[in-house]
Amino acid sequence: MRAPLRQLRVVLEMIKFEHTLFALPFALMGLALAAGGWPGWRTLGWILVAMVGARSAAMGFNRLVDREIDAANPRTRGRALPAGLVTPRFVALFVAASSGLLLLAAWQLNPLCFALAPLALAVLLGYSYTKRFTALSHLVLGAALGGAPLGAWIAVRGSVAPAPFALAAAVVFWVAGFDVLYALQDREFDRATGLRSIPVRLGVHGALWLSGLFHLGTLALLALLPALYPPGLGWAYWLGFTGCVALLAYQHAIVRPGDLSRLDAAFFTANGVLSVWLFLATAVDLALAGRAG
Q1: Domain positions in the chain
Q2: Could you say which of 65, 172, 214, 219 would form a disulfide bridge with 146 (CB–CB 3.0 to 4.6 Å)?
Q3: How deeply is 57 buried, as exposed, middle or buried, from its count of CB atoms within 10 A (0-12, 13-18, 19+)?
């Protein structure tokens, strides 16, 4: 029994389970907007289960299919699979169980969630192959995370509307923008091994410019969101939006063509704060609107 539990701990560390919280605030934001506040605890619980299952399946599958690439890359060769700390079979079983968890949660939520769950899984798992044939893999990763607020909205309402699509698209460009920055670390390795990325295709300067354009797209869509959300959003949301502007500007200020040393700060700290900050600002805005109503 100890060996499977030990392998499970290794897998949870391998997929950075704690980073499930990275996309969670946007899922909660979609949930809160759909409900105009908070839904019942049952709906919230199954959405959280779906989020954990989705991200665990995606990250586990990525590590599984990339294990040979990771073994060849000096930056990633210490990861659990290349280092032999966990077996491919165990990771495959973990991915299957996580996928099943997502499907179970979708089935418990509503028929539309369950019908769309296989499509969500296709995007989540398919991303891992995209860098083998397209430099636009960053946008596919964005789509994988962008499904979180859209899925949460559907879980609450059982239908779609323009507002969650705008929020999902904002997340797509947000993720693509910071993933382009993160891919700068592996530009030379990716070029040598034939992997595709924006930094390989456009070079460092071109990648920085495109990342900035992606993030401008994020801000444009977030600015559009209140107009697409029928009750509207007030000053608290716009305070959150202002924080997003500052945090995205900070990322691009500290990542320079000749200095990538602060890339981890841009990737983890600024983006983690951004998602939590915007969700909290939106939650406050909805709470104030509810009291006023």
Answers
A1: 2-292
A2: 172
A3: buried
